[in-house]
Design a protein that fits this description.
single chain; about 525 residues; mainly alpha; 21 helices
Length: about 525
């Protein structure tokens, strides 16, 4: 039982109401960072109020969580924002699960899953248990001192419970008596009553979950001892002979694949044509191999490391040798996948999915290399921490590199070298692409034809983009604001590129007798 139970309720429901204020009918922007920061500050204040001190490792999780929470206010590219939001929410759950003990750097994979599910379970159950508990009544001489404060909290709780009940009954009474209904409608604007009920419901739900999460973080049910990452969490049951056969069979399969396909994996365009595949088929098949082989191979390694018996020194050496050979084969296949992707990009240019794949391949290769070192130095239990670091690195790379700016730069470079520039695709990219488009548009070295395409792309964006100053401040985004300011600063130069059509039929321009539409109707940045 917390010393200041009512403060948990008050803080959680204040945060839930703040959520409604920041996000109701508003897209993500600076609001996400503000709300996450508010949640974390409230958690630290509740811990201080209860006399609890966070672990040093929790400070690291706090800073990382706030860093990724900043991304939706910084970038406009959808996947980068989505991935950052997921990392932020995961960081909050991990912070809740390890706030006092800071054990997350020593977790195995199973420990991370337990911690996250325990935080979710605490969020769903602790508030109910807290409300059901009846503390021991104070002595008679203290009853009068505390009765005043208790009455205030009791009134607040009663009002909170009464509001939805009164709202539902009022709605029924308005149907029964039109005069009464008109009066209530004028006074309380009952036309929006269903909306208010829905908002009240999710405020109550979010508040209840936050109470449980805060309790789980500050007052966990039990104290967790620091785990040993190199200690098996289950008893091995698979013999070394069976393990060796499995690994050797997979290694032979991979080596045969690499040997037979070597000509096609690294042979270039001519060999692709001989197979009868298109560039698209070739690259997509390569990425499928990447996902299947790399993920399954890492999964196989983790499973066999957990379930196989390696009691003798020779079995330990044999396991390391076979798994390192497995990882080496996977790295070769990763290289082949990268080669296919490069050929695809050379033929068709860069897209968001291809760029995600690019970044993903590098971080996956880094994970495999580090896994090899963990195996060599007998630190296999730290794989979960390495996987966490690589996942954070992938998300941070997407945010820092500016995916849409990277795509724009690469595709404009292809256009300068003589390839076709896909203007509608440039327009469909987020505001992150605008600074690069304008930089290339104003570059004296940009050929006239390419500059014309960029000019029409900027004209399209100007026609389709709304002034961010007209949006609620909660939706403020640095990238969108910067893009608008740049478009306005270059308005006179962009005005030379006239568009046809309108908002209803869609904006377009004519190039070589063909109508080039700016993008789908309803494009929003």
């Amino acid at each position: 039982m917390p010393k200041h139970k009512n403060w948990f309720w008050l803080a959680a429901f204040a945060a839930a109401c703040f959520f409604d204020f920041l996000f109701w009918k508003k897209n993500l922007g600076i609001s996400f960072l503000i709300w996450i920061a508010a949640l974390i500050i409230i958690g630290y204040l509740l811990a201080w109020r209860e006399g609890k001190k966070p672990a040093a490792a929790s400070i690291i999780i706090t800073l990382l969580t706030l860093g990724f929470a900043f991304v939706p206010a910084w970038r406009s590219e959808p996947f980068t924002r989505f991935f950052s939001v997921m990392l932020t929410l995961g960081g909050l759950l991990l912070l809740s699960a390890t706030f006092l003990n800071g054990n997350w750097p020593f977790y195995k994979m199973v420990d991370y899953f337990k911690a996250l599910f325990s935080a979710i379970g605490g969020g769903l159950s602790r508030a109910i248990l807290l409300g059901a508990k009846n503390p021991t009544p104070p002595p008679l001489d203290e009853t009068q001192k505390k009765s005043g404060g208790k009455k205030v909290w009791a009134v607040l709780r009663g009002l909170l419970i009464a509001l939805p009940i009164v709202a539902i009954l009022a709605l029924l009474l308005t149907k029964a008596d039109p005069v009464f209904g008109d009066w209530l409608t004028k006074v309380f604007n009952l036309e929006k009553l269903p909306e208010y009920l829905f908002r009240a419901f999710y405020i109550l739900a979010i508040g209840g979950i936050l109470v449980g999460i805060y309790l789980h973080a500050v007052l966990p049910n039990k104290t967790e001892e620091r785990p040993d990452p190199n200690q098996a969490w289950m008893k091995p049951f698979l013999g070394w002979t069976e393990t060796a056969v499995i690994l050797a069979a997979v290694d032979l399969l991979f080596m045969a694949f690499v040997f037979i396909q070597m000509r096609y994996l690294f042979g270039g365009t001519a060999n692709i044509n001989e197979t009868g595949f298109t560039y698209s088929d070739y690259a997509r098949r390569g990425f499928g191999e990447l996902v299947a082989v790399a993920v399954l191979s890492l999964g196989l390694y983790l499973v066999l490391h957990t379930v196989s018996k390696r009691e003798s020194k020779s079995s330990q050496i044999g396991f390391s040798a076979l798994t390192i050979l497995l990882m080496a084969n996977v790295l070769v296949i990763l290289a082949s996948s990268m080669q296919r992707l490069l050929l695809y990009e050379d033929a068709y240019g860069f897209s968001q999915l291809r760029t995600y794949t690019h970044v993903f391949i590098y971080w996956l290769a880094a994970l495999i290399v580090v896994t090899v070192f963990l195996e060599l130095f007998r630190r296999r239990g730290h794989f979960a921490l390495v996987l966490l670091v690589m996942t954070l690195g992938f998300g941070a790379t997407l945010a820092v590199m500016n995916v849409n700016g990277f795509i724009t730069n690469k595709n404009v470079a292809r256009a300068i070298s003589g390839e076709e520039l896909d203007v509608p695709y440039l327009v469909e990219l987020s505001s992150d692409a605008v600074p690069t488009i304008i930089e290339k548009f104003n570059d004296a070295a940009t050929p006239k034809a390419v500059k014309s395409d960029l000019g029409y792309a900027l004209a399209c964006r100007t026609a389709l983009m709304d002034d961010p100053a007209t949006l609620p401040w909660q939706m403020f985004n640095i990238s969108t604001n910067q893009a608008w300011n740049l478009l306005q600063a270059n308005k006179s130069a962009i005005a030379k590129y006239k568009l046809l059509g309108d908002d209803d039929r869609g904006w377009y321009y004519v190039k070589d007798g063909e109508d080039i539409y700016c993008g789908p109707f309803g494009f929003m940045d």
